[in-house]
Design goal:
117 residues; mainly alpha; three-stranded antiparallel beta sheet; 3 strands; 4 helices
Length: 117
């Protein structure tokens, strides 16, 4: 691995540790936890804000999805189609981005999604 990737992995691990430690303070308020973790990386560890937000979102995914059987196949994913692999069966599902937007984002029932600017 190169030094930049090692640095990002270390900072993502720091974000995950921070969120694990403070998750109980933000039950039901995931955006607040995400913002606090990004603030922590930026202020305490000197990570630039854009990188801090990116690493915190990755860590948040690990925090809440590590035990789930589905993984995104980044190499098979395109700008318009998400490739989702079921690790139990090995099957890959192609999901158009338009369907993700229609059923997860453009619906009033999207209470669990977090907007990132």
């Amino acid at each position: 691995m190169n030094a930049l990737q090692d640095y990002q992995d270390d900072m993502q691990a720091a974000a995950l540790t921070y969120m694990q430690r403070h998750e109980a303070e933000h039950l039901g308020a995931s955006q607040a936890l995400i913002n606090r973790a990004a603030d922590h990386l930026e202020c305490a560890l000197g990570v630039t804000r854009p990188l801090a937000e990116k690493l915190v979102l990755r860590a948040y995914g690990e925090l809440h999805s590590a035990e789930q059987p589905y993984r995104v196949d980044l190499e098979a994913t395109s700008a318009h189609t998400l490739a989702l692999v079921d690790t139990r069966t090995g099957l890959t599902h192609a999901i158009p981005a338009e369907l993700i937007a229609r059923y997860l984002i453009a619906t009033p029932k999207r209470k669990r999604l977090t907007a990132v600017n």
